[in-house]
Amino acid sequence: MAEFTLPKNSKIGKGKAHAAPAGAKRTKSFKIYRYDPDAGENPRYDSFEVDLDSCGPMVLDALIKIKSEQDSTLTFRRSCREGICGSCAMNMDGRNGLACTTAIEDLKGEIRITPLPHMDVIKDLVPDFTHFYAQYASIQPWLKPATATPSTERLQSPEDRAKLDGLYECILCACCSTSCPSYWWNSDKFLGPAILLQAYRWLADSRDGAANERLDQLEDPFRLYRCHTIMNCANVCPKGLNPAKAIAETKKLIAERAA
Q1: Are 179 and 235 in contact (CB under 8 A)?
Q2: Distance (Å, rounded) from C-alpha 227 to C-alpha 231?
Q3: From the CA atom positions of the chain, what is the Rg in Å?
Q4: Which of 74, 82, 69, 86 shows the shortest CA–CA distance to 113?
Q5: C-beta separation of 193 from 177 below 8 A
Q6: 31 with 49: CB under 8 angstroms?
Q7: How far apart (Å, rounded) are the C-alpha atoms in residues 243 and 238?
């Protein structure tokens, strides 16, 4: 009989409770994952009550308020606050998204916030993107033209430029990849929806001349074909992109090349 044990420090305990200021009339409760690997303690959930009448409308506004007024040790990433940088990607009530574009009023009851799934946690809500970025670098995400550098810019027709719509907008927030069960199971070899969408972005670019080389790198039972079209990626993308479609188009290019 197989016997399994959980890793050390994997059990989540009950943490501290932080009440809203006295006199607050409209409050919202946030249950936030806390973990500091340097402390050697188990993860925990801390509860924070936030006065909504003195807080901005987005989840990121609440996190900034909590860090500023209730617990300065709360750790999370954020930068642009406009849904552009992807820094504040996290899981809110079981769904990946950007804290800066997720409205508090759209989440009912107590809001549970955790780091993106399946990634090692550096601290609190900050996941380790080292492996994710290494996978991104592996697809060589830059233009590799087949012709010599022209004296002017490389021109592209409006029709060819339109083929990049729905691809170039990816902000590498990893919401899609960390929502994908296939990536959870095989992230050591499967590139995942975010990276495969980026790979197709260069395959679809009329100025690139390395299509065969790129397809050779992708044609692998794990790097590409672990995608089973579960569609979680398209469901959670904060930019409204469809990585599953890009993956299907890549598979189609490989099939056409072999025909």
Answers
A1: yes
A2: 9
A3: 21
A4: 74
A5: yes
A6: no
A7: 12
